[in-house]
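Record format v2
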Amino acid sequence: LVSRKKKPEDTIVDIRGTKIGDGAPKFVFGPCSVESYEQVAKVAESVKAKGLTLLRGGAFKPRTSPYDFQGLGVEGLKILKRVADEYDLRVISEIVSPQHIEEALDYIDVIQIGARNMQNFELLKAAGSVKKPILLKRGLAATIEEFINAAEYIISQGNDQIILCERGIRTYERATRNTLDISAVPILKQETHLPVFVDVTHSTGRKDLLLPCAKAALAIGADGVMAEVHPDPAVALSDSAQQMDIPQFDEFYKSILESPYVRA
Ligand code: PEP
Ligand code: MN
């Protein structure tokens, strides 16, 4: 059902009026983890000031170590909802367990399925059974075919509001956190009718590569870019090294708007 052969025209994902895949690139910024109302609100203010509508923030964090910050859970979703209401933004947050999907519907606009859960088939089926857009990230070691099949799990339950997100794959290369598979973008665009995003933060893990990789993503046909922003990355409870602070975010967004591939 996700195949372009079955449906030649692009699917547009509608996030309460913000349309993904309509030809104008969209951007998702926000902290890695929701830590407090004040922290999220600071980023939201900066997102809003740019005329943007999408905000991210993790409440359920799939951390590599069980001793690392695991996220605020439902409390975090409540903070996102409050900020979304106050700043008129749409929020994206990762859900890691099928049992939290129903509850999440009250608080967030897009359910993110993270790289580590790309083949959590019960979670995919649960995401397919609700009427909410899904942002599906490519698994750390997933082939494009496996990625497309994961989206098929969602759409086969009736939900076609799916954004695919390339976020880098694990290779032998250690210069970046993961290896951004930029060619996945046109392949996914050719083989499916779904919009495609590129997460430049988790793919590179390097602040100096966010801008060139975002430009490359848009040049090669991505429908949007995701990057992490934190008011004070040095004290962030997760991904401290790779989140932009607000001045860096301002500079990043200004440069992106100057790139020839962004047409509002
Ligand atoms: C995230 O976006 O918060 C995240 C954990 O990303 P990924 O699943 O791509 O590692
Ligand atoms: Mn992160």
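Strands lie at 13-15, 18-20, 26-30, 54-56, 90-94, 110-113, 134-137, 162-166, 196-199, 224-228.
DSSP finds nine helices and ten strands in the chain.
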